[in-house]
Amino acid sequence: MQNFHTLATHRGCHLDEILAILLLRLFGEALFPGVRTAKVVIWTSGGTPNGRLAEEYERDGILGIGVGGGRFDEHHLPPESAREECTATLVAEALGIREKPELRRILDFVLRTDRGPALHAFDLSSLVKVAHGAYPENEELIIASVGMELEAKVRLEAELLGLPKNERGKRLGWEGTSFFSQCFAKWCAERELRADDPALGQLSKFVEQTRAGFIHEFDLSAMCEAVKRVHSEATANCCARSAFEAKYREQRDFFLAVAEYPRIADEHLVRPRHQKPFMVAAINSPNSHMGRVARSERGCNAAIVIQRQPTGNVAILTDRKRLGEDHVLLLMDEVTRRIRGREHEVRGTPQPAAAILMKEEMGTEKCWSYQRRAGMLLNGSLSHPDVPPTSLSLEEVTEIVLRVAEEIL
Predict the structure, then answer these.
(1) Phi-psi category of 176—alpha, beta or left, where left has phi over 0 and alpha has psi -120 to 50?
(2) Are 335 and 399 spatial neighbours (Cβ–Cβ below 8 Å)?
(3) Which candidate, 64, 292, 354, 298, places its Cα nearest to that of 363?
(4) Who has greater pLDDT, 220 or 81?
C-alpha cells in the first residue's frame, strides 16, 4: 500500500483545509499510511506543480488537500455538489467519520463558514484569514497552531457527549471566565498599547463581551478555553496572544487604509437604466483593507471595487447584497467575457468562444479567475500568488466595468 509522506494545500488555506489535515492525522492512518506524520507543503498555483494529475502525485505519496483537482478538492465539484461539501467533509466522508458524534458540530460549523460568511468577526474561520494576513510567511505554523486548537475541541466534544445542555455549558465555561480577559490585559501591557488606540477598539469590545460568557462556541475565547482544558493555560495563552496580535495588525492596517483612501480612490457614479444609481471605486494600493473601506461609509458605499496591486494584478469585487444576486451574475458574466476577450486581443492570442470566456475558475488566457458564486473576477489572489499580472491598465479595466454596468443593469 502507498505510503503518504506529504500533504499539499494552497496558500492562505482556510479552516476547512486545516480541519481536513487534522482529520487525516487523527483518523486516516489505516486508509492513508504515513499520513499521521506527513509534512505539509504549499502549492502556490492552485493546481498541481507541472500540471500533473492529482492521481499521479498520490502514487508518489503526495495527497492534495483543497488543491490540485483530486479527491479532496471541492473546487472542481459540480455546482450542486460543491454547495454541500468542503474539503473537510470530503475527507470525513472518505474516512467514514462524517456522522461521528464528536465531529458533527465542528463539521457543521466549518462547512457553514466555508460556503458562506463567518458567523462572527472572532470565530475561528475568520481568525484563520486574519492570521494569514498578519503572518503570510508562517503558513505551516498557522496550520499547526489552528490544528491544535481544533484537536482540543474534538477531544473536549468527545468528553461532553451525552451530557445535558446545562451541564455541557458549565463544562465549556459558557458562564464566563476571567482567564481570557487576563490574557488580553497582560498582552496589552507588554505591548504598551493605549486604551484609546483605535486599532484596539474591536478587540477590547469583544473581550469585554466574553466576560459574561462565550458569544459562539467556536469564537476565540471558547477555543482558548478548550485548549486550556485539554492542554494547559500556557498553551492557551500563546493561542490567545497570537490571535490578539494578528487582529491588532489587521485593525491597524484598516485605519491606515481609512486615512489613505480619500487621496488615492477614483470614484465613479453609475446610473443604470433599470436600477438605482451606485458607486464604483477604482483603487491603486497594496492594502488589502481598501475594498472594505470603499464599501463602507468611510469610503463611498461602493457596490463594485476594482483594486490594482503594485505588481499589476487586479481584482474586481462586487457587493451582492447591494446589487442583488441576479444582477451580479448578469454583470460579472459579461465583464468576465469582455475582459478576458480584451486580454486575448492585447496579447494577440486567438479568442475562444463566448461561453468559454465566461467559464468559472481560470480562463484560457491563464490570467483571470472567475469566482461566479462570490461575484469576483481575480487576476491573482492570496492563494494564487503566481498568476501573471493583466496586460490591461486599471483605467481600461474600470472603463469596461462601467460600460457593462450601464448597458446591462
Answers:
(1) left
(2) no
(3) 354
(4) 220
The three-state secondary structure class of 66 is: coil
d(CA 149, CA 145): 7
| Half-sphere exposure in the Cβ direction for 404 (13 Å, CA) | 21
The grid coordinates of residue 66 equal: 483543497
Mean of pLDDT values over 334-360:
86
What are the residues whose beta carbons fall under 8 Å from the beta carbon of 9, sequence distance 6 or more?
Answer: 17, 21, 40, 41, 42, 43, 64, 65, 66, 67, 143
Cell 455546482 -> residue: 79
Tell me the C-alpha distance between 236 and 361, whole Å.
39
- The continuous run of DSSP H or E covering 362 comes out as strand 361-362
pLDDT-derived band of residue 1, with 50, 70 and 90 as boundaries?
Answer: low
Return d(Cα 144, Cα 149) in angstroms, integer. Answer: 9
Burial class (CB in 10 A: 0-12, 13-18, 19+), 350: exposed
C-alpha cell at 191: 505591548
**Backbone dihedral region of 306: left (phi > 0), alpha (psi from -120 to 50 degrees) or beta?**
beta
Tell me which residue has cell 505510503.
3
- pTM, 2 dp: 0.84
Length of the chain: 409
Cα 253 to Cα 141, 159, 200, 258, 305: the distances in Å are: 22, 41, 12, 9, 18
